[in-house]
Specification:
Layout: H1 5-15, E1 18-20, E2 28-30, E3 43-48, H2 66-81, E4 86-89, H3 99-106, E5 112-120, E6 130-133, H4 139-153, E7 160-163, E8 176-183, H5 187-193, H6 196-216
Parallel strand pairs: 3-4, 3-5, 5-8, 6-7
Antiparallel strand pairs: 1-2, 6-8
Helix pairs in contact: 2-6, 4-6
Length: about 240
């Protein structure tokens, strides 16, 4: 089926529109993020994955729960960024926050980015960090975050940088990404992730990536990916 060029132009204009942020002032949110990544943003929203009734992954080697490691890493990142940005914690204790609520809360802010912190699980031979993004305006920060985590953890044999439509990479109306700091199912990596000093190095590296994005925007992170129009991610999607 062929569509009239004027209708196509109108479609993309409507799906790339910006909306005012309200109390944050003159900045705007972009519904789909079909634009370059941000620079000089003032707010960092840190999302510690899982929490409360949702333990996330549990390491068979150290018995540590993902929800505890994500909150600890989020707090360390908050400390690293303190005084340089307005830092908003999605959760500050062992509480459960629904994924849709997390996306909605993040979308209340303008001039902000969202970073969701996780630890991974999979085949015992898999190791290494992974970074997930969807929006075009999240690509540069995702590249920086993956580079930062790799500088601490090594690349391993993980999937690395992945473009995937998830509720925390597609649904917020601000630049957003989800990082997997390591595989708790891998014996060696689980023991490293159990070390507070190691988690501190991960947090410091992520903080440096955020500072670099704020100072430089997308400079040095490679070409932007093509824009993709897709519906919001839902709980009924095949993968979350």
């Amino acid at each position: 089926m062929k569509y009239h060029p004027v209708l196509l132009t109108l479609f993309f204009a409507l799906n790339s529109c910006t909306v005012p942020t309200g109390p944050m002032g003159g900045s705007t949110r972009d519904l789909l993020g079909h634009r370059p990544g941000p620079a000089h943003f003032r707010t960092v929203i840190i999302d510690a994955g899982h929490g409360g009734k949702d333990s996330g992954a549990v390491s068979p080697h150290t018995r540590q729960q993902e929800k505890d490691l994500t909150l600890d890493t989020a707090r360390r990142l908050q400390s690293e960024l303190g005084g340089q940005f307005r830092v908003v914690m999605m959760r500050s204790s062992d509480t459960f926050v629904d994924l849709d609520e997390r996306a909605a809360r993040a979308s209340e802010f303008g001039d902000a980015i969202l970073l969701s912190i996780h630890y991974n699980a999979g085949p015992s031979g898999m190791r290494g960090p992974e970074t997930f993004f969807w929006r075009v305006d999240s690509h540069g920060l995702a590249v920086r975050a993956q580079r930062a985590l790799t500088s601490v953890a090594g690349s391993g044999n993980s999937r690395g940088l992945v473009r995937r439509r998830l509720r925390l990479t597609r649904n917020p109306t601000i630049p957003c990404l989800l990082v997997e700091c390591g595989y708790l199912s891998n014996r060696e990596e689980a023991r490293r992730c159990a070390d507070p000093g190691y988690r501190q190095r991960l947090a410091a590296a992520l903080a440096q990536a955020i500072r670099a994005q704020a100072a430089l925007g997308d400079a040095g992170t490679g070409p932007l990916p093509p824009p993709l129009n897709a519906p919001p991610s839902r709980a009924t999607d095949a993968r979350e």
